[in-house]
Amino acid sequence: MAPIKILSVDDEQDLELLLTQYFRRKIRKGEYEFLFAHNGLEALTILLKEKDIDIILSDINMPEMDGLTLLTKINEMQNPALKCIMVSAYGDMGNIRQAMNNGAFDFATKPIDLDDLSVTIEKAAEQIAYIKQSQKEHTQLESLKTDLAVASEIQHAILPRVFPPFPENEHELDLAALMKPAKDVGGDFYDFFRIDQDHIGLVMADVSGKGIPAAIFMAVSRTLIRTIGLQGYSSDVCLAKANELLYGESTEAMFVTVFYAIYNIRTGEMEYCNGGHNSPYILRANGRVEQMPMSTNCIVGIMDGLTYTSANEQLGVGDTLLMYTDGVNEAFNTAFEEYGEPRMEHILSELNGKNCQEVIDGQLEDIRRFTDGAEQSDDITIMALKRKA
After folding, report:
1. pLDDT tens, 193-227?
2. SS (HEC) of 114-141
3. Prediction pTM value
4. How far is CA 321 from its chain centroid?
5. Which one of 3.40.50.2300, 3.40.50.300, 3.90.950.10, 3.40.50.970 gives the CATH number of domain 4-137?
């Protein structure tokens, strides 16, 4: 532990011997270290060289630069961890009062009561330690904020953001997606990728937990599912393989709910597997809004040796598949009321027939109106695919 560095500023030479004699034990133990100056100018020179001085013990009445002027110069340094104890004659209360008004930590009167001065120095040292700890925590917090901002940029960068994503199939399908984290980084993710000429993979997922651990698990989950999916496995096999790998990597029982679909661009047929995720909606071209069957499969990454079951769905021309995370239906307003699926189905019926980006924007706007300024409690992620031909 570094010693408390004390700069004594006084034109009386005897004070140097007095202080070093009285505090000799603390000096010997490395608790205190004393430096000495004989006027304000000398003190400023020392302060420029010694950046780690903690306490200044300064006489008020000195030649060349007095203690009050020195105090003003020290205040200009804007170092809250540097404490000044001013010393003056007992009857010089006007200057002492001015020094206290100008930010001095405390004062002592001559002749100096060294026992009382020792207590004052210890009090100053306690405040200095508290301020330094606060400064350290503030620096760490600023560093964490910077790291979170970078993590947020990286997280958004790994998700597909180019729309339309398959321009060569633009006349056959419309696709749009959005992730809106509740905090700097989130645990939700969406993904889509071409498997072969006729098939694309669609992923909507929600990692358990919040913050950086969820964001890291999200990145791992997204990479694994995409890697397995690109090998052409069926949706149920893909989630089963992802489950085995994620279970081996999971810490603190983290898991992910996943809806994974393999969509045939030519026919509109969709083979899918739902691993404990919210059931997507289908906005039919005839105006109906249908919710797909509830998942009967387990969440992904929570248990070893699970098997998953796939199913099939047919999208007709003009039908839109809407996938989402529970940040949508479980959004809360200021009265702690839940947005809920009935409200969601109502707005989707009004948005039916619009393009995918308009459907997503309309859904988000309806949530914004409902929450009415309430803090977003969970990540909101939505992806929509429309069969155009």
Report:
1. 999 999 999 999 999 877 778 888 888 999 999 99
2. HHHHHHHHHHHHHHHHHHHHHHHHHHHH
3. 0.70
4. 32
5. 3.40.50.2300
Q: Residue ranges of the domains in the chain?
A: 4-137, 159-387
Q: What pLDDT score does 217 carry? A: 86
Q: Name residue 236's amino acid.
A: D
Cα 134 versus chain centre, distance: 19
Superfamily of domain covering 159-387? PPM-type phosphatase domain (3.60.40.10)
pLDDT in tens, 313-326: 999 999 999 999 99
